[in-house]
Design brief:
By secondary structure, the protein is of the alpha+beta class. The protein is 20% helix and 34% strand.
């Protein structure tokens, strides 16, 4: 005998399907770029508490991003044109400072991807800015690369921020210097004597 499911059972089934489809259809986000000899370099991490003795001056690119829901997310390097294609990924929460590469370090990976490519995953929260650093295992490795940021669980979506949203420390220093200069000009203008010129 055929029984029609109750309205409550139907609502639960629809909600479950909606959650499953949200997780299944969160689109991966791709990132790409090129590492060159003119890029900034840093001493990349080796572990969460020590710096690498091999990658002491690796070129790097930084990608700022955020997620709209708590969950587990992955970052993967999918291609690198340098000989050996040995990549390294580091993920930072809140801020990235190449002069202090262990500060705010959330996750890192060398070779968990295909071959010598990198793959990491971490639990991320909405409302926090994250920074993915793409770099290399060895110093002096250059070439074009590609990768993806993806949702593993939780159904959230990754959004890459504009490149200008990832300030370099030198840029921040110049901003402070400019503000100081403006203040000095304003103070000097306020204390300068007023000259009166009489017609005659």
């Amino acid at each position: 005998m055929f029984r029609i499911p109750s309205m409550r059972a139907l609502k639960c089934a629809v909600a479950a399907c909606a959650l499953a489809s949200q997780a299944a259809f969160a689109a991966p986000v791709t990132f790409n770029g090129t590492l060159t000899g003119s890029d900034d370099v840093f001493n990349r991490p080796f572990t969460s508490i020590s710096l690498s003795g091999v990658g002491t001056a690796t070129s790097y690119d930084v990608f700022g991003f955020h997620v709209n829901a708590a969950g587990v997310y992955s970052a993967e390097s999918t291609a690198f044109s340098a000989p050996g294609a040995d990549t390294f990924l580091a993920l930072y929460a809140g801020a990235f400072n190449p002069a202090a590469p262990l500060s705010n370090l959330l996750a890192y990976d060398d070779d968990s991807g295909l071959g010598a490519l990198s793959l990491l995953s971490a639990t991320l929260q909405a409302g926090i800015e994250y920074y993915l650093v793409f770099t290399t295992y060895d110093n002096g490795d250059f070439g074009s690369y590609a990768g993806t940021l993806n949702t593993v669980t939780g159904g959230g979506q990754v959004t890459l921020d504009a490149a200008s949203d990832v300030p370099e420390p030198a840029t921040l220093g110049l901003l402070g210097l400019a503000l100081l200069g403006m203040q000095l000009v304003r103070r000097r203008a306020a204390t300068a004597p007023t000259r009166v010129v009489s017609a005659g």
